[in-house]
Amino acid sequence: MTDAIRATDITVSFGGLVAVNAVTFTVPERSVVSLIGPNGAGKTTFFNVLTGLYKPDSGVVEFQDRDVTGLPPHRIAEAGLARTFQNIRLFGLMTAEENVMVAMHSQLKAGVIATLLRTRVQKREEAQARDRARELLDFVGISHTRDEYARNLSYGDQRRLEVARALALQPKVLLLDEPTAGMNPQESARFVEFIYRLREERDTAVLLIEHDMSVVMRVSERITVLDRGEKIAEGTAEQVRSDTRVIEAYLGTGAAGSAGH
């Protein structure tokens, strides 16, 4: 299987603190991969390197065999690597539909003048973008919210809206940072099913940072574990669950025989 993302020997430091230390990591095409570890392990820092928010001190990030190390975030997103954030970042006073349409601006061809003059091309593009936004809201299961302000949506629906907005970029890899945070068990279970649909119906690889071990163990084809900036384990759910270093660092000594909590 071809790798969509290949990060090699990534090191990031802040002052004298090494946040990520020589981590090598891959995401195969159309795979579901999770990145886990205790707080402060370096997970979000690593995400930020992949998506261009941080430039690594050393190492290389390749996306679909192209070196994207240090490219600005919008260039990486346009290349097909989209993400959501641990802290929801929606435009609260825009509707759900408008939030998704905003993400499509880089794909639209009509320029500023055409937009100001409301030319035929611009109107056609806007109609197509609106149709696409509605299709994505339907795909993530919140089509009924399209005319509601984002700030008025439930927490779970705001999370789904973030995913719809990321999908508007037509990504080949979607990075989800704590997507089930704040969800109840039923919402989390539905989100697991949604991730499967995303991979099958959108031909998209998914990379998760997630603290809910029941979600991680159910959905992941491969799990990578960081601790204090270093990769301490990598493998299937079963391999990671039974790894002594993982149990000590993250899952807790009582979690070896369960899905973890």
SSE layout:
Elements: E1 3-14, E2 17-28, E3 32-36, H1 43-50, E4 58-63, E5 66-67, H2 73-79, E6 81-83, H3 96-102, H4 112-117, H5 120-139, H6 155-167, E7 173-177, H7 185-202, E8 205-209, H8 213-219, E9 222-227, E10 230-235, H9 237-241, H10 244-251
Parallel strand pairs: 3-8, 3-9, 6-7, 7-8
Antiparallel strand pairs: 1-2, 1-4, 4-5, 9-10
Helix pairs in contact: 3-5, 3-6, 5-6
Could you give a short description of this structure?
The protein has 10 helices and 10 strands. By secondary structure, it is α/β, with parallel strands linked by helices. Strands 6-7-8-3-9-10 form a 6-stranded mixed sheet, with helices on both faces. It has a 4-stranded antiparallel sheet with strand order 2-1-4-5, covered by helices on one side.
How would you explain this protein's 3D organization?
- The chain folds into two domains: 1-80 and 171-261, Rossmann fold (3-Layer(aba) Sandwich); 92-170, no CATH class.
- The longest helix is centred in the middle third of the chain and has 20 residues, at 120-139.
- The protein has 261 residues and is of the alpha/beta class.
- It contains ten helices and ten strands.
- It is globular and about 60 Å long.
- 38% of the residues lie in helices and 24% in strands.
- Residues 110-116 and 253-261 have low confidence and may be disordered.
- A six-stranded mixed sheet has the order 6-7-8-3-9-10, sandwiched between helices. A four-stranded antiparallel sheet has the order 2-1-4-5, with helices on one face.
- The chain has helices at residues 43-50, 73-79, 96-102, 112-117, 120-139, 155-167, 185-202, 213-219, 237-241, 244-251, and strands spanning 3-14, 17-28, 32-36, 58-63, 66-67, 81-83, 173-177, 205-209, 222-227, 230-235.
